[in-house]
Amino acid sequence: MSETTSLNQPLGKLRLGVNIDHVATIRNARGGAHPDPIHAARVAEAAGADGITAHLREDRRHITDPDIDALMASLTVPLNFEMAATDEMQAIALRHKPHAVCIVPEKREERTTEGGLEVAREENKLAHFIAPLADAGCRVSIFIAADRRQIEAAHRIGAPVIELHTGAYCDAHHEGRIEDRDTELEKLRDMSAFGHSLGLEVHAGHGLTFDTVTPVAQFPEVMELNIGHFLVGEAIFSGLDSAIRRMRETMDRARRDAFGEGVA
Ligand code: PXP
User: Fold this and answer.
1) How far apart are the CA of 213 and the centre of ligand 1, in A?
2) Is 2 among the domain residues?
């Protein structure tokens, strides 16, 4: 049962951040320059992306330092720079000063970002870590599970934005675990409202597809979705431009169905 009432109108237009990491994954499988993630970012911009997201991992398995240089030099929409809370990444972010940084947990052995950041356990360290990034003008966001303790901790450390991890919801959906899916969705709904009630801007992402995006897009407090792997996979069948346009339309339709015409 929710303790925080959800809004009955969205806070604003729902932004789409397109994550281009896996264009770089395909490029790196062979070495060389093709497919070029910077080209993908340009296609995403033209297809309606409100921002580009890229995760520079410690092992540089997909996005590389020159990719970040090139994105900073050429993007016309904001860059959301995903990074682990390490000194190396902090120095890179402070050098580039991207529009946004999203702090994510990172383990070398994982295939993708498996869970949210443990903010509650590392509050002091993270508060000190994000302060210079915020001072440099970056919008700091913290990638966390839809968990009240983590949201409260993100608020206490002074992060203006949280991104809620939608992976558990998407996995349950695609594995046909309907009860788990509904439980995860309910958590995401409640915790979006809770985050907003604390004054945080709420984003969401990880694992979203055409089949799973609609209910998340209908949370009125959610301002931005970051979506990557599915779009890059779908691009194999329909092209990147078409995949992004269809995602954008699905998000807009979701908002209109929930809140009426004239609302996106
Ligand atoms: N948001 C964050 C913080 C992420 O780490 C990722 C994956 O890099 C995404 C969104 C996008 O997830 P996916 O590639 O599964 O759409």
Assistant:
1) 13
2) no
